[in-house]
Amino acid sequence: MDPESDVTDAATDESATVVRRYYNALDEHDYGALEEVLSPAFSQRRPDRTFEDRETFVAFMREKRPNPDTSHDLASIVVGDDCVAVRGRVTDDGTTLFEFADFFELEDDRIDRLETYSR
Fold first, then answer.
1. What is the pTM of this model?
2. In the predicted model, is pLDDT for residue 56 greater than 50?
3. What are the SnoaL-like domain coordinates in residue numbering (predicted)?
4. Which of 28, 84, 35, 85 is nearest to 60 (CA)?
5. Do residues 117 and 108 make contact, with C-beta atoms less than 8 angstroms apart?
6. What distance in Å separates the CA atoms of residue 52 and residue 44, rounded to the nearest whole number?
7. Cβ atoms of residues 34 and 61 within 8 Å
8. Domain range annotation of the chain
9. 3-118 belongs to which CATH class?
10. Which residue, among 46, 44, 45, has the nearest Cα to 55 in the 3D structure?
């Protein structure tokens, strides 16, 4: 087995794990874990708003999230070089509210940037 492929596989697994931690933190309302998985320079662009820093994003999710009782049902995770793409749906009590595609950029095993698209 090629040693470089081991490194790539480990990096791929770690990137997917970081992204799964992000969704778990949101779904479980674990805002400390959410803050830990995001870099201090975190930003998110999504159709309805943009968050320019980690603190604003975490505060929004904690205090102003329109429907905090939703869950993220992940259909696929694709990992590239410092980038992870996720396709899934947001559900509330088993009912699909919308589908999404998230594109994460990671740095030092933390989420640095997130682009979200939904329909």
1. 0.88
2. yes
3. 19-113
4. 35
5. no
6. 7
7. yes
8. 3-118
9. alpha beta
10. 44
